[in-house]
Amino acid sequence: MLYLAEVQKKTGFIGSGKPEFKLLACQRSEHNWSAVTGEETITAPDDASYNAGALVMVEVSGNRQIQRHYEAGRTLTSILQNFSSLSKKSKTQEEEIEQWKQSLTFQSQELNRRELELETRQEQVEQAEADVEQLDAQRQELEQLRQSLEQQQEELSRKNQDLEGAWAHLNGEMRRLEEQRAETSSETGLDPAQVDNLQSALNRLTEAVMPVEALREPLTHATDGLTYHQGLLGDYRQSLEDRRQELEHRQQELDQQTSQLKQRWADWHQAGAAVAAKREDLKLRQQTIKIQQDRIQALSNTLQAQGNLHQQAYDLLNTTDKVRLSKKVDVGALDAMELDQLHTLVNDLEKDLEKMSRFVSDQEEELTLEQEAIDEIKVKIEQANEFDRLQLETELDEELDRYQMLNETLVGQRRNLIEREEVLSQHQAVLRRRQGLTAEESPVSAVDLEPLLDNIDLQRQGTTDAIHALEIEIKQIQESIGQLKQDIEKSETALDIQHAEVESFEADLQQQQRDLAALMGKVAVCEELLNPAQESVNGLRQSLENLAGGVTKLQEVNDYQLQAIAELRQTVASVGNPQMATS
Fold first, then answer.
1. What H or E segment, with its residue span, contains residue 436?
2. Computed over its alpha carbons, how large is the radius of gyration of the chain?
């Protein structure tokens, strides 16, 4: 179990007691920590050389034995970084959720508007269908009226034929009358039988005359009905014309929306190209960081080599009593110190250096593991798809941040280790000299290596400054990368929202186009129904006009026949009664 602990050292009248670890928090999972209740402490091991109040990470086994301990600074920094990253991600997700809410609200409003439009269009279609059905019924009624008029016209023709037969019979009687009159020219009149025959023929002729008023009433009714239906057809045609103009206006609006859709798609592609350019810039900056880190690693190796050279120089100085130590060690104080006390001090420095070396070695090993993890993620990125690559790149950035932080920490620790090695080397040189272990040399063979050591220190300082400058540059690039990542995330979120809005706009436009096509089809069907109905009405009107002309002519013929019959009656009467004629 991993704990966060505070180093405590109890002091008494004899001296400082053994240090203890006061447990503050316990790790439950990777990102879950809980506070330790109460005052729980664990005795620190012998190799724990931390100052009082320092924070350390302690790994404790099941039997409450300390397995490992190390400074908590880097771990706390990593935890705070993870917390900051999670906080940023949470904030970004909240912004995305809010944007999606707004987008969904807009889409819901658009759907409601489309539903209202569809309901209105459905009502219009239903009304058009009802009008078409009514028009069809009226067309059937007109067809029945035409058939009735045709029957009446046939009856009129039949009565005309009967009238022509009666006239032929009358003409025959008249011819016989003339023949009889020629044969009996000497006689003065007709016998009663002949008069009766003539009167009977005139009566039949009078009954054969068709009453024209019986035809005028249905003709007038048919004309009025035809006029009414013509008005309805005109109203329907005007309504269709209005709808056609409305559909043309809507078609123009759809054409404009189609142009807007093309422009919005072009804007989306342009925004996508801008995001792609930012991604390429991000990769370039990450590659730059990798190059700079490699340079830092090379300079670190150089610094290590310079340190080794410095140590070797000190080792050469340890072979002679004529040494010139750096100002970090008070040689006079070491010479005045008791030999046993100096030996104890050297042993303490060796133990302290051993702990420091072991700690730095662990950190170096962890840095190597971080580098291996980075290389593994890079291999996964090369083999992953686009979606997984984005997540792996985020993990890579986090690993690079950890690597950079650990490397920065190790730079100072390496310097501290080298300084401690130098101090120990100088103490060991004094101890050996006082123990008589160094070889005595003649003054002629004494060599002054202090300028060489100063030159090595100067080179080490230059290397350190170069590393520091590269670290500052990497930090600046990392800050710019963080800002660029935020810009890319915001741009990608906005791009996704824009893509969804454009797709919704395109789907709505396609639905409007389908609805418009359906309405135009219905209008075309109505026009196809109106044209035959108009032709039928025109045919009926022509038939009625012809029938009205025939009735007028029939009225004239009837008047002429009735006048002729009246004159024949008067002639027959005068022929049958000569005395009345003469009187």
1. none
2. 61
**Which string of DSSP letters, residue by residue, matches 105-122?**
HHHHHHHHHHHHHHHHHH
Instruction: Read off φ and ψ for residue 440, nearest 5 degrees.
Output: -80, 135
Cβ atoms 393, 381 nearer than 8 A: yes
- The candidate with the shortest Cα–Cα distance to 428, out of 356, 346, 352, is 346
pLDDT in tens, the chain (583 residues): 888 888 887 754 444 567 888 888 888 877 788 888 878 888 888 777 787 888 888 888 878 888 888 888 877 887 777 777 777 777 777 777 877 778 778 777 777 777 787 777 777 667 767 766 776 776 677 677 667 767 766 776 776 677 677 667 767 766 776 676 666 544 445 567 766 766 776 676 666 565 666 667 777 777 777 787 778 778 877 887 888 888 888 888 888 989 988 998 999 999 889 989 988 998 898 888 889 888 888 888 888 887 777 667 666 654 544 444 444 567 778 888 888 898 899 999 889 888 888 888 888 888 888 888 888 888 888 888 777 777 888 888 888 888 878 877 776 677 677 778 778 887 888 888 888 875 444 333 335 566 776 787 788 788 888 888 888 888 888 888 888 888 888 888 888 898 888 888 888 888 888 888 888 887 777 777 777 777 777 777 777 777 777 777 777 777 777 777 777 777 766 666 554 444 4
Structure tokens at 531: 């044209």
> Are the beta carbons of 103 and 501 closer than 8 angstroms?
yes
Place of tokens 């007709």: 190
Tokens for 210, please give them: 């068709």
Between CA 140 and CA 143 the distance in angstroms is: 5
212: which residues sit within 8 A by CB, 6+ positions away?
551, 554, 555, 558
Tokens of 110: 């658009």
DSSP 309: H
Which neighbouring-strand residues pair with 68? 59
Residues paired with 171 in a beta bridge: none
562 Rama class: left (phi>0) / alpha (psi -120 to 50) / beta: alpha
Residue 308 CA to residue 385 CA, distance in Å, equals 47
Identify the CA nearest to 357 among candidates 261, 402, 421, 314.
Answer: 421
How distant, in Å, are the alpha carbons of 189, 481, 509 from that of 514?
95, 48, 9
Whole-angstrom distance, CA of residue 432 vs CA of residue 319: 9
Phi/psi zone of residue 57: left (φ > 0), alpha (ψ -120 to 50 degrees), beta?
Answer: beta
DSSP string, 502-551: HHHHHHHHHHHHHHHHHHHHHHHHHHHHHHHHHHHHHHHHHHHHHHHHHH
Task: State the Cα–Cα distance between residues 505 and 249, nearest whole angstrom.
Answer: 19
Nearest Cα to 190, choosing from 177, 199, 202, 200?
Answer: 177
Amino acid at 426: Q
Beta bridge partners of 25: 4, 35
